[in-house]
Amino acid sequence: MHPHGTLVLGEGARRLHVSAAFNAKAKVAMSRFEPGTSISYEKLHENINIVRKRLNRPLTLSEKIVYGHLDDPVGQDIARGRTYLRLRPDRVAMQDATAQMAMLQFISSGLPKVAVPSTIHCDHLIEAQIGGVEDLKRAKEVNQEVYNFLATAGAKYGVGFWKPGSGIIHQIILENYAYPGVLLIGTDSHTPNGGGLGSICIGVGGADAVDVMAGIPWELKCPNVIGVKLTGSLSGWTSPKDVILKVAGILTVKGGTGAIVEYHGPGVDSISCTGMATICNMGAEIGATTSVFPYNHRMKTYLNKTGRADIAALADEHKDDLVPDKGCKYDHVIEINLSELKPHINGPFTPDLAHPVSEIGAVAEKNGWPLEVKVGLIGSCTNSSYEDMGRAASLAKQALDKGLKCKAAFTVTPGSEQIRATIERDGFSKILRDVGGVVLANACGPCIGQWDRKDVKMGEKNTIVTSYNRNFTSRNDANPATHAFVTSPEIVTALAIAGTLKFDPETDYLTAANGEKFKLEPPNGDELPARDFDPGQDTYQHPPAESGSVMVDVSPTSTRLQLLEPFDKWNGKDLEDLQVLIKVKGKCTTDHISAAGPWLKFRGHLDNISNNMLIGAINIENDAVNKIKNRLTGEYGGVPDVARHYKANGLSWVVVGDDNYGEGSSREHAALEPRHLGGRVILVKSFARIHETNLKKQGMLPLTFADPTDYDKIRPDDKLSITGLATFAPGKPLKGVVKHGDGSQDIITLNHTFNENQVEWFHAGSALNRMKELQ
Questions:
Q1: Is 4 a catalytic residue?
Q2: Which of 64, 71, 328, 513 has the fewest CB atoms within 10 Å, measured from its CB?
Q3: What's the pLDDT at 665?
Q4: Shortest CA distance to 118 belongs to which of 147, 150, 91?
């Protein structure tokens, strides 16, 4: 360690950067390090002081980290919720489903190497069928072409590669790359998980990742800051998951849009580092840009246990920059007394429908939701820590001691190879298997729809409970009749043992094998293992220093991968007579726009993946999914089929949508597919942040109604002209001319959030096209 807050990472490298430390045994694979691309605590401190002096006020923690990474802290215009910031993130992380398109775009850029440390994580393409070993083996066979592409592209362009079986991207980041004060972007909406380690980790689309990997300043609208003050302390059945379940119920799925959620207060110290990560992870479900906790002793302990004591020591020296200033102001403050917080369960069909566990049985009966719990699923990126697994195992052990097993099917998803190996060594896995559990691969699995479910028929009404983060219709198993509820691993385990939503573990009794009535004692588990973590198998591939001989092949006949062709530039004219492709009714998430599950196999092939465009969206004309009228033929067809027909006939089109359009996953395919199939405009009441940015990146026009009631003026067979594009500029609304079938018209005002750079993306046809123009 050297003075001024820097670490020596090899000859001449005097910047703070976290290596890919596999485990506490100091087996380290150093991440690729480029001069000038990472930020030291000294530089962070310098930038914070510049901005604090300019703004003349105390700063929140999130402001310190974000503004501390400004490309130009002296000249940057800073106004919460208004200006766009140009930032220099420290690193990029990509999961395998989104990395395919991100790397294809990077290849198209023509650049020889990434400019910042970057990694690819293979976690999305492993389908849960039988069990971890068998499923991983099958995934390697089925996805060999894709894994080979990602491994060789990573080697060629300087990107680290975490092989299938290594674990879920967010757990790997927490164990290896996150640290207090880092700014990291990841091509997955749950990247904010790293906020549990005092990091600003933000989910983005692949095109944003390409910008950062290309060394271009990354743009982010200056976030508002929502403060959540925690008092009291967690105890008993209440877990960190209950904090975010409660917050989701308060803020709803769009209440955090455009804001960073910053937790603070005396209650913070009662939460483990991995528990804080759980809270930040699910912050994506309220639309938040990210979430963050202040640096404390729980983070220090975690850093020490994961082989990063040098980082912890340095963070201690610079703690003042890693906590909020006294007297800082938040745009909105929520206060939660952890001592009074009760266990929660949210759902079905949306993660913000919050219920105390004590009430869910009665609510389910009243609403006709199935009471029988068919499957309990624990793990995922949200809740797969050593502490989570230990607390779940403590409940399973109580049931086993009374001669009971789970009445529901029960699955366990370890978050990483390190977690899998450690809970296997320490006996948790055996207990969970003995109670009826199946330990799945270290991967996303059922959480993202990678689940070959066999116990119910498609369309059969049923209930599952998970410790996941998201529970949109059809998300986990493609069955729209599945009622999915999200809760803590402890409550999932208890409900799987009881087999019913009507069980409240705090008050209700179970019947032992001998007929004795008993109550489950509150769960308990160590925050971290007493011994060092067991790293398990080595699953990391470091990029070679010399990669000139590395070949990256994409077969022209592949059904999984497809090289990209640039989108067409704007022709300089207004967009006339766009056909309404579909007027969407109600909630339309990125799962509705570009489904996951079996479609994940096509994430590297734009034309094939486009066959799922909007097949889950509800058509307001007939309340049906994937059934719209082709206005050229008069016949009904699937949304992608009609879009392709319009494109083939030179007819551009527009999608009309409702509030918070595009909430959920960061998947940029939900923006690429409409652009590829001839769409030009997405017109809605409001957007989710990531999706709106993704649309801009691909040369689309994401527009909102100045008057939300104008949504009602548009009919499914209308045409829409967008005028004023010759003078398209930031802050200047556009005009929409709605042309009805009866010859009448409505003139409506359309708002946008484009800045000057983003207008240039539109003119060039995409952000990638603009990048090439500037080379």
A1: no
A2: 513
A3: 85
A4: 91
- Name 582's bridge partners: 655
Catalytic residue among 121, 667, 691, 752: 667
Q: Which of 470, 689, 691, 752 is catalytic?
A: 470
Q: Is 242 strand, coil or helix? A: helix
- What is the mean pLDDT of the segment spanning 660-666? 91
Report d(CA 577, CA 591) in Å as an integer.
Answer: 29
Q: Phi/psi at 481 (nearest 5 deg)? A: -95, 0
**123 flagged as catalytic:** yes
The answer to whether residue 138 is catalytic is no
User: How many residues would you count in the chain?
Assistant: 775
% of the chain beyond a pLDDT of 90: 93
| 676 in active site | no
Give CA angle at 241 (237, 246), nearest 5°: 95
Number of H helices, E strands in the chain: 23, 34
Of 124, 308, 318, 453, which residue is the catalytic one? 124
Active site residue 344: no
**Token couple for 543:** 């990029």
End-to-end CA distance of the chain: 38
Q: Identify whether the C-beta of residue 757 lies closer than 8 Å to the C-beta of residue 690.
A: no
**Can 667 be counted among the known catalytic residues?**
yes
What are 169-197's pLDDT values in tens digits? 999 999 999 999 999 999 999 999 999 99
**pLDDT digits over 49-91, tens only?**
999 999 999 999 999 999 999 999 999 999 999 999 999 999 9
**Residue 596 — very low, low, confident or very high, per pLDDT cuts 50/70/90?**
confident
> Of 96, 135, 188, 211, which one is the catalytic site residue?
188
